[in-house]
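User: Let's play a game. I give you a shape written as tokens, and you guess the letters that built it. Ready? Here's round one.
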């Protein structure tokens, strides 16, 4: 994972926080080496048929709201964040996100959890630059229309607008595959398939806590029952590989205080603290996963900056000319254009949720 990341950033041309993308880059290379030019994959099935686990979590939280006017699910969310030691933030921001997206959804839950890394790691300059910018507003959603939708359909819409193009068809799809000259085909993204599934009632997508319900019914015609109805598995790679005892030299170079201050995106003291402190968190816990994902985002953003904007951060190939020190030895500060900082699909401004279905 770690050794492949510089090549992954070159292929994706943006920060990538999902470490599994590096495994797919290697897979595409192997597919090409064996003489294949085209690969068929299943992007779209989880998006149209509610295949991700956070849809179930959101449904379970919704069961708490059985008393009209008493948002018990919101109290549960707040309690969870407080118990896990999450950074404090104004809940007016959460309400603003809900208004922008036409209501609460499973995606705002998972993105909200992942985006806590902004509060932990962003520098004062980043907070000042982003100010009150809300990446969801860049989607220009038709809020009046979305409010009339079933909550599950609201979540499916966000997944299709953000997760699908920003991650699955980018860092996990076309870019990493075409880097090895492999063309990917997506049957679930066929317009007729999408149109058919969009018209279905949500109960055919998520029946109780059974995800991809209609697809499983169809699969049962040709596959054994235990295969058609087995629990979904996530395609993941370790997030903590960048902070093991032995890591490539480029990781330490990118995360040095000099490099972090040179790019200006992240607070060096916070990065150095959490690189050690995250190990005290329970392995596999959501709190640790969020912390690990945030640290991957720091490395990926520093690596992207080195590769495309300033080749002086590490001993790695770069497509940018090195910005050397000034005559007094002080590094020349580099500030990326605001547009590149604000990309919802590629920066820590909106984290991608990890994993893809198998």
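Assistant: Ready! My guess for every position:
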């Amino acid at each position: 994972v770690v050794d492949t990341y510089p090549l992954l950033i070159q292929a994706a041309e943006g920060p990538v926080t999902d470490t599994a993308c590096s495994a797919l880059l290697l897979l595409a290379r192997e597919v090409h080496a064996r003489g294949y030019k085209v690969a068929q994959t299943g992007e779209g099935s989880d998006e149209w048929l509610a295949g991700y686990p956070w849809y179930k979590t959101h449904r379970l939280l919704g069961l708490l709201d059985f008393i009209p006017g008493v948002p018990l699910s919101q109290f549960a969310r707040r309690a969870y964040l407080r118990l896990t030691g999450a950074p404090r933030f104004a809940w007016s921001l959460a309400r603003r996100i809900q208004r922008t997206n036409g209501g609460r959804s499973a995606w705002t839950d998972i993105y909200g959890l992942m985006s806590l890394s902004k509060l932990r790691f962003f520098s004062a300059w980043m907070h000042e630059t982003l100010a009150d910018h809300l990446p969801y507003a860049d989607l220009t959603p038709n809020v009046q229309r979305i409010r009339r939708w079933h909550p599950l359909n609201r979540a499916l819409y966000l997944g299709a607008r953000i997760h699908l193009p920003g991650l699955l068809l980018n860092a996990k799809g076309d870019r990493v595959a075409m880097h090895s000259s492999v063309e990917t085909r997506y049957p679930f993204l066929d317009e007729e398939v999408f149109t058919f599934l969009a018209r279905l009632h949500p109960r055919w997508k998520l029946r109780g806590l059974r995800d991809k319900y209609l697809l499983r019914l169809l699969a049962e015609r040709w596959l054994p029952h235990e295969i058609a109805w087995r629990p979904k598995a996530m395609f993941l790679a370790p997030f903590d590989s960048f902070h093991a005892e032995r890591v490539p030299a480029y990781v330490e170079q990118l995360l040095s205080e000099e490099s972090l201050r040179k790019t200006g995106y992240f607070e060096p003291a916070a990065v150095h603290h959490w690189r050690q402190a995250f190990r005290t968190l329970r392995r596999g816990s959501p709190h640790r996963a969020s912390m690990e994902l945030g640290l991957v985002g720091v490395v990926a953003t520093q690596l992207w900056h080195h590769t495309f904007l300033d080749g002086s951060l590490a001993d790695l190939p770069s497509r940018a000319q090195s910005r050397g020190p000034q005559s007094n030895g002080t590094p020349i500060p580099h500030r990326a254009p605001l547009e590149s900082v604000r990309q919802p699909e590629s920066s820590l401004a909106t984290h991608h949720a990890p994993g893809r279905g198998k």
